[in-house]
UniProtKB/TrEMBL annotation:
Protein name as annotated: Predicted N-acyltransferase, GNAT family
Occurrences of domain N-acetyltransferase (ranges): 3-140
PROSITE patterns listed in its UniProt record: GNAT
InterPro entries found in the cross-reference section: Acyl_CoA_acyltransferase, GNAT_dom, GNPNAT1-like
Organism of derivation: Noviherbaspirillum suwonense
Length: 142
């Protein structure tokens, strides 16, 4: 597998990204479709992981520094795709001058984000019927 990650707008990456998000969140995790799609897609920076022409995963960076909608197709999990997406979104945040990034991690993914320098903040909470925890990673100035 030779994975590349593109970053761009919803207009350029949304078709592929929405397909992955529907597959992972709506079909696998039973998130209601009306909760999965929102107005933030149009104003976010999106990342799309590709193996050739095959879309494997996606994520987004909101204008306020939140990373969200991280989703990797089942067959690509465990191959580093999520790490590549997260790194691309963090780099995009740094390029635009964000001091930190934050996210609401599904509790089962907490260890993944901790390995990427994120620290938990606050208590576990429910979102779309799934346990989450807020996490933050500050960037070192320089």
């Amino acid at each position: 597998m030779s994975v590349t990650v593109l970053t761009g707008s919803w207009a350029s990456l949304g078709d592929a990204a929405s397909g992955i998000r529907h597959e992972v969140f709506v079909r696998e995790q039973n998130v209601p479709v009306e909760l999965e799609m929102d107005a933030f897609d149009a104003v976010s920076i999106h990342a799309l992981a590709l193996d050739g022409e095959t879309a494997l995963g996606t994520g987004r960076l909101l204008p306020d520094g939140h990373i969200g909608r991280m989703a990797v197709r089942r067959e690509a999990r465990g191959a580093g795709v999520g790490s590549l997406l997260l790194q691309a979104l963090m780099q995009a945040a740094q390029r635009r001058g964000d001091a930190a990034v934050v996210l609401n991690a599904q509790l089962t993914a907490r260890g993944f984000y901790e390995r990427h320098g994120f620290a938990p903040e606050g208590a576990v909470f429910m979102d779309a019927g799934i346990e989450h925890i807020a996490m933050r990673r500050a960037f070192v100035p320089g």
